[in-house]
Write a structure and sequence with these properties.
This protein has 4 helices and no strands. With 134 residues, it is an all-alpha fold. It has one domain. The chain is globular.
Length: 134
Protein backbone atom coordinates (compact mmCIF):
# COMPACT_ATOMS: atom_id res chain seq x y z
CA UNK A 1 0.00 0.00 0.00
CA UNK A 2 3.00 2.29 -0.18
CA UNK A 3 3.79 4.76 -2.92
CA UNK A 4 6.63 3.83 -5.26
CA UNK A 5 8.40 7.18 -5.40
CA UNK A 6 11.39 5.96 -7.42
CA UNK A 7 9.10 4.83 -10.24
CA UNK A 8 7.04 8.01 -10.01
CA UNK A 9 10.07 10.30 -10.14
CA UNK A 10 11.81 8.33 -12.89
CA UNK A 11 8.70 8.23 -15.09
CA UNK A 12 7.87 11.92 -14.62
CA UNK A 13 11.39 13.14 -15.28
CA UNK A 14 11.90 10.76 -18.22
CA UNK A 15 8.62 11.76 -19.85
CA UNK A 16 9.46 15.45 -19.60
CA UNK A 17 13.01 14.96 -20.92
CA UNK A 18 11.63 12.93 -23.82
CA UNK A 19 9.25 15.78 -24.57
CA UNK A 20 12.12 18.23 -24.55
CA UNK A 21 14.28 16.01 -26.77
CA UNK A 22 11.62 15.89 -29.47
CA UNK A 23 10.10 19.33 -28.91
CA UNK A 24 13.19 21.42 -29.60
CA UNK A 25 14.12 19.85 -32.97
CA UNK A 26 10.46 19.75 -34.01
CA UNK A 27 10.03 23.43 -33.22
CA UNK A 28 13.03 24.28 -35.34
CA UNK A 29 12.46 21.99 -38.34
CA UNK A 30 8.82 20.86 -38.48
CA UNK A 31 7.30 24.13 -39.67
CA UNK A 32 3.52 23.95 -39.89
CA UNK A 33 3.39 20.39 -38.56
CA UNK A 34 4.94 21.44 -35.25
CA UNK A 35 1.68 21.71 -33.27
CA UNK A 36 0.52 18.27 -34.41
CA UNK A 37 3.86 16.74 -33.43
CA UNK A 38 3.88 18.52 -30.07
CA UNK A 39 0.35 17.46 -29.11
CA UNK A 40 0.87 13.86 -30.24
CA UNK A 41 4.12 13.66 -28.34
CA UNK A 42 2.61 15.00 -25.11
CA UNK A 43 -0.20 12.47 -25.31
CA UNK A 44 2.09 9.55 -26.14
CA UNK A 45 4.85 10.25 -23.63
CA UNK A 46 2.52 11.02 -20.71
CA UNK A 47 0.35 7.97 -21.43
CA UNK A 48 3.38 5.69 -21.66
CA UNK A 49 4.85 7.15 -18.46
CA UNK A 50 1.64 6.39 -16.58
CA UNK A 51 1.45 2.93 -18.12
CA UNK A 52 5.07 2.10 -17.25
CA UNK A 53 4.73 3.35 -13.68
CA UNK A 54 1.98 0.88 -12.73
CA UNK A 55 3.57 -2.08 -14.46
CA UNK A 56 4.67 -3.74 -11.20
CA UNK A 57 2.39 -2.00 -8.73
CA UNK A 58 -0.65 -3.68 -7.21
CA UNK A 59 -2.57 -0.83 -5.54
CA UNK A 60 -3.29 2.89 -5.90
CA UNK A 61 -2.68 2.82 -9.64
CA UNK A 62 -4.53 6.03 -10.42
CA UNK A 63 -2.76 7.91 -7.64
CA UNK A 64 0.59 6.78 -9.03
CA UNK A 65 -0.42 7.96 -12.50
CA UNK A 66 -1.55 11.34 -11.18
CA UNK A 67 1.70 11.80 -9.26
CA UNK A 68 3.71 11.06 -12.41
CA UNK A 69 1.83 13.93 -14.06
CA UNK A 70 2.56 16.20 -11.10
CA UNK A 71 6.28 15.39 -11.23
CA UNK A 72 6.36 15.97 -15.00
CA UNK A 73 4.68 19.34 -14.52
CA UNK A 74 7.11 20.37 -11.77
CA UNK A 75 10.03 19.49 -14.07
CA UNK A 76 8.39 21.43 -16.90
CA UNK A 77 7.79 24.45 -14.66
CA UNK A 78 11.42 24.43 -13.55
CA UNK A 79 12.64 24.21 -17.15
CA UNK A 80 10.18 26.88 -18.20
CA UNK A 81 11.37 29.31 -15.55
CA UNK A 82 15.05 28.70 -16.27
CA UNK A 83 14.45 29.36 -19.96
CA UNK A 84 12.00 32.22 -19.34
CA UNK A 85 14.14 34.74 -21.19
CA UNK A 86 13.58 32.85 -24.42
CA UNK A 87 9.77 32.80 -24.24
CA UNK A 88 8.83 36.37 -23.30
CA UNK A 89 6.64 36.77 -26.41
CA UNK A 90 3.39 36.30 -24.43
CA UNK A 91 2.17 37.98 -21.28
CA UNK A 92 2.94 36.18 -18.00
CA UNK A 93 -0.76 35.79 -17.16
CA UNK A 94 -1.54 34.20 -20.52
CA UNK A 95 1.54 31.96 -20.28
CA UNK A 96 0.63 30.70 -16.78
CA UNK A 97 -2.99 30.17 -17.84
CA UNK A 98 -1.80 27.99 -20.69
CA UNK A 99 0.59 26.20 -18.33
CA UNK A 100 -2.17 25.24 -15.90
CA UNK A 101 -4.46 24.07 -18.70
CA UNK A 102 -1.72 21.85 -20.15
CA UNK A 103 -0.72 20.67 -16.66
CA UNK A 104 -4.22 19.38 -15.95
CA UNK A 105 -4.34 17.64 -19.32
CA UNK A 106 -0.94 16.01 -18.70
CA UNK A 107 -2.05 14.72 -15.29
CA UNK A 108 -5.24 13.30 -16.79
CA UNK A 109 -3.32 11.56 -19.57
CA UNK A 110 -0.86 10.02 -17.07
CA UNK A 111 -3.80 8.85 -14.98
CA UNK A 112 -5.35 7.36 -18.12
CA UNK A 113 -2.13 5.47 -18.79
CA UNK A 114 -2.17 4.13 -15.24
CA UNK A 115 -5.82 3.12 -15.65
CA UNK A 116 -5.03 1.30 -18.90
CA UNK A 117 -2.12 -0.45 -17.18
CA UNK A 118 -4.44 -1.59 -14.40
CA UNK A 119 -6.96 -2.90 -16.91
CA UNK A 120 -4.25 -4.81 -18.76
CA UNK A 121 -3.07 -6.40 -15.51
CA UNK A 122 -6.62 -7.39 -14.59
CA UNK A 123 -7.12 -8.95 -18.00
CA UNK A 124 -3.86 -10.91 -17.68
CA UNK A 125 -4.96 -12.30 -14.32
CA UNK A 126 -8.33 -13.42 -15.68
CA UNK A 127 -6.95 -15.28 -18.71
CA UNK A 128 -6.56 -19.03 -18.17
CA UNK A 129 -3.14 -20.44 -18.85
CA UNK A 130 -3.12 -22.58 -21.98
CA UNK A 131 -0.70 -25.48 -22.15
CA UNK A 132 0.25 -26.69 -25.58
CA UNK A 133 1.01 -30.40 -26.04
CA UNK A 134 4.38 -29.72 -27.64
Amino acid sequence: MKLHWKRILFAGISAELLLLAVYLPAKRYAGSAFMIIAVAEVIASMFLAGLWTVRRIESRLLLHGMLVGVVANVVYAALRETMAGHIRSVSPIEAWGNFFAVAIIKMLICTGGAFAGGRMKAKERSLPSVKFPI
